[in-house]
Amino acid sequence: PSHDKGKLDYSSSSKTYNVTISKANNLVYLYLNGTTNSDKIYVYPENVNATGYSSGGTVALTRNGTSGTCSNNVCYDYMSLGNGTYEYNVTAVGNENYTDNSTGISKNAYIAKGYTTTYLYLNSSRANAGYDSLDLANFTVSTNLTGAIIYLASNYTGFVTQAGTTPLYNYTILATTGIYNITGYYSGDGNYTASSETWYATVTGTST
Q1: What burial letters (b/e) apply to 15-47, b meaning 16+ CB within 10 Å?
Q2: pTM of the predicted model, to two decimals?
């Protein structure tokens, strides 16, 4: 038989492989005022800024079961919260590339009471003071909390505890000799601590 020189015949062949790509784990993240995946302590009236997001799918953020606001796969919850403990939880529903993460992550925001300071002035000085009998004493109480109801108390004979909005002023003629405690105080409430300050008034028997 004759053959064409330089001309070769090749048969074609192929192989097929199946590749399985598993869904990636869907990681979730919780930020509490920049702190990542961790509990955080606040002092009232500090605001809580919570943010949650996930690797993929649809993220959800809750605070004690109340849903946050979500957009573009990021959830937010920016709130002024009272004294107490608040649990934040971030979860995610997966998609074609990411698994569900129904457990998610949970962390707590602890809101401590705000601190108050009470200031007591005896005749314009935060210090013990001396008076002559029948002197007119000027007692002033104030606190760093605007609008707070504060109190002024003393063991001076016949003194009646005073109450009023900060600042509180009292003028008393001190006739009876002795050493008396004068105390200004704020009793606190659900979101603020109590505070007080005490000084001593010494009344001597010489009148001016």
Answers
A1: eeeeeeeeeeebebbbbbeeeeeeebebebebe
A2: 0.81
